[in-house]
Specification:
Layout: E1 4-5, H1 6-22, H2 26-38, H3 42-61, E2 71-79, E3 84-85, H4 90-102, E4 114-115, E5 122-123, E6 131-137, E7 143-150, H5 152-155, E8 159-163, H6 169-179, E9 188-195, H7 198-208, H8 215-221, H9 226-240, E10 254-262, E11 269-276, E12 282-287, E13 313-317, H10 323-326, E14 334-343, H11 346-357, E15 372-374, H12 402-408, E16 412-415, H13 421-429, E17 433-436, H14 442-446, E18 449-456, E19 465-479, H15 486-494
Parallel strand pairs: 1-3, 2-6, 9-10, 13-14, 14-15, 15-16, 16-17
Antiparallel strand pairs: 2-7, 4-5, 7-12, 8-11, 9-11, 14-19, 17-19, 18-19
Helix pairs in contact: 1-4, 2-3, 6-9
């Protein structure tokens, strides 16, 4: 075996970050295809179909599966017999690989990591540092590495508790799955960590998500221990809740439930739960001194050839919409939007409200009256793109700004997942509308964006206000002008327990 060089590590991490940005794991794709084939809910089937179409497009076009290209998690096991040719801390080398991967000009990835998190929250401009977990192997002469990218929507739904030893883990998980909504972009994988202490159980939950999707093999052979029985019971019962793809109601909410455990104190039962979204991204490799890692391209035949069904779709020209005409569209309707929309996320909403309270007009004469606001932070474009992948972000983060936005006079909002009841009440009061785009279909959505320009707050990067010109952008009416929410009616229809 040769030396494992610093450059080999950097190049391997960079290539891994690139690879997982546009290739789903093959086992995940196969799980999604099975979910698509089995789905009976028209809305959920359409959402899964969009995710699969997006996945194949990204595999072919080498562009990100999701606009949220995630924060990087690295699990590294260093063999104590490995011959390392490095001149600086391993952490610095790993982060150099992440920076190289995320700044690749051929496939720029979005920088989502901010420093000074409790203060100025300044973007680090290369998506570093990664969150790195180290272990050692006394008998190995290799470095074993798993690289994962986790988006904010799924990370934000993580749960932790220290239960009493006599409490039911099953009950705790089921309660939290029902309460965490659709902001984590189901269908995905649920990771559970049991035991150790608080930080260990969270680490176990995250690490479990790196496992192979094998729930159907488990179901076929039957569980052989308590953890496997719990996995199978949770998998079956979570899918009976009826949350479904994107929370629209359907048969598949989770593709698998993974569990890892560790011994713990007799007086406690730490439990953690972390979901992985429809943009599941991770890869495992080893370095043995024979150069940088190489990654095999998946066979494109694993993706089916799908098209968005058009028989029930309504085409809508945004320029022709009025508050009165909004009443023609009902919760659950699938629309293809054309026209001009504005974008704004958390930081832009905060700025907008500050300007409103100060009685000042927005910069550059920007007006929000009678406009649709899309909650998105796009990836930078490459080549001849007008915008990079541009899927929706979780809408509940904007709930606290909704009243101000309604008072300003916006017509409607586009995001992902459910809205809280006070926001739904505001939508009904102002005869507005909330639409959802499919989380996990960012590259597909970007194809409908024909023009993009920055209007205000350019210094905030992806948090700026853009104007998008869209043509046949696929969306679903989530909350109509009467306050009817698909995220309530859909799961209720498909709930089996």
């Amino acid at each position: 075996m040769g030396k494992i060089t610093e450059q080999d590590i950097i190049d391997s991490i960079a290539d891994a970050c690139q690879y997982i940005s546009f290739y789903h794991p093959e086992d995940f794709v196969k799980g999604m295809v099975e979910a698509y084939e089995n789905e009976k809910s028209e809305s959920a089937k359409n959402a899964i179909g969009q995710i699969l179409i997006n996945s194949k497009m990204c595999a072919m076009g080498h562009r990100p599966l999701c606009q949220d290209t995630g924060s990087v998690n690295i699990f590294i096991k260093v063999g104590l017999k490995a011959d390392l040719d490095i001149s600086r801390d391993l952490e610095d080398i790993l982060n150099a690989g992440v920076a190289k991967g995320y700044t690749d000009p051929d496939n720029t990835l979005r920088y989502s990591v901010v420093a000074d998190p409790a203060g100025k929250r300044v973007n680090t401009k290369d998506n570093t540092p990664a969150v790195i977990h180290y272990t050692v192997d006394a008998n190995s002469d290799k470095i074993d590495i798993t690289v994962a990218a986790k988006g904010g929507g799924s990370e934000n739904k993580s749960k932790f508790a220290v239960l009493n030893p006599s409490d039911s883990i099953y009950d705790w998980v089921m309660k939290n799955v029902e309460s965490m909504g659709a902001g984590w972009c189901p269908p995905g994988i649920l990771g559970i960590g049991i035991g150790g202490n608080p930080e260990k159980s969270m680490l176990l939950a995250k690490e479990s998500l790196m496992g192979h999707v094998d729930i159907h093999e488990l179901k076929e052979r039957g569980p052989q221990n308590d953890l496997e029985e719990l996995r199978l019971r949770l998998y079956e019962d979570i899918n009976k809740i009826g949350i479904g793809a994107q929370g629209l109601g359907g048969l598949t909410t989770v593709l698998d439930v993974k569990i890892l455990d560790y011994p713990c104190h007799a007086a406690s039962l730490p439990v953690a739960m972390i979901p992985n979204c429809a943009a599941t991204r991770h890869i495992h490799f080893e370095l043995d001194g024979n150069g940088a890692a190489t990654f095999q391209k998946p066979d494109l035949d694993i993706w089916p050839d799908l098209e968005i069904p058009m028989d029930t779709v309504k085409k809508v020209n945004i320029e022709d919409l009025t508050k009165e005409k909004l009443q023609d569209y009902k919760s659950g309707d699938t629309l293809l939007l054309s026209g001009k929309i504005l974008t704004a996320r958390d930081a832009a909403h905060k700025k907008i409200v500050e300007y409103k309270n100060a009685g000042k007009p927005l910069p550059n004469g920007v007006s929000l009256e009678d406009r649709f606001i899309y909650y998105v932070g796009p990836v930078d474009p490459v080549g001849d793109e007008v915008v990079g992948p541009a899927g929706p972000t979780t809408s509940t983060r904007m709930d606290k700004f909704t009243k101000d936005m309604m008072e300003i006079g916006i017509m409607g909002m586009i995001g992902k997942a459910e809205r809280k009841q006070p926001t739904i009440d505001l939508i009904k009061e102002y005869k507005s509308m909330y639409l959802i785009a499919t989380g996990g279909a960012a590259y597909l959505i970007a194809q409908s964006i024909k023009g993009a320009k920055t209007l205000a707050f350019e210094e905030m990067g992806m948090e700026a206000i853009y104007e998008f010109e869209v043509k046949d952008m696929p969306v679903t009416v989530a909350v109509d002008t009467e306050g009817n929410s698909i995220h309530t009616t859909g799961p209720a229809q498909w709930r089996a327990i």
